[in-house]
Amino acid sequence: MLFQIIFVIALAAESMTAALAAGRRNMDWFGVCVLGCVTALGGGTTRDVLLGHYPLIWVEQPAYLLVTTAAALFTIVVARVMEWLKLTFLLLDAVGLVVFTISGCMVAMEMGQPALIVIVAGMITGCVGGVLRDVLCNDVPLLFAGELYATVSAITACLYFFGIQAGFPAELVTIVAMAIGFGLRALAIAFKIEMPRFVYAPVRDQSSKR
Fold first, then answer.
1. Which residues cross the membrane (predicted)?
2. How many angstroms separate the most distant Cα atoms in the chain?
3. Domain range holding 10?
4. Taking the mean position of all CA atoms in its chain, how far away is CA 47?
């Protein structure tokens, strides 16, 4: 029950961060709502389609559409205050990452998928919504810009899957995986820890600058 409550809070938080991104690009209200829903539900929808898990998450639970839409519209009303809550939303985004990752693992495990697919399903659920948001906003996805994001999702998924496989209580495993995943993401935010970048400059480009 507690996990479900945190999941709904994470949905709302993801929708609100997406609404702010839409506002920075002067989208209309419909665009704000669509971007909020896509960001919050896109990862779970992509996972369900790839795994053949039906009905889709928001078809099975239409209330999720109402939550994400309401959160996006609420953001329009209180947008001027949001800038003061930037750190709060970054931390809520971290909560969303680990909660969505574990949710994806749960679905894949219920379907009897092997370890690799469970972990990938968790990562898809946790990360793809943000990728879709950035693509729709014509940005380089945060996931590919050096942020320690997918790595945190993968670690969280591994902790959850192997903890369950080891026979530990599901509640304990969920709490530990969430705590470690959130802690890693929070540390990455606080100390600006990033993945190594690949920088390639062709020789002809360098010579043309001379």
1. 63-82, 89-109, 115-136, 148-166, 172-191
2. 64
3. 2-196
4. 12
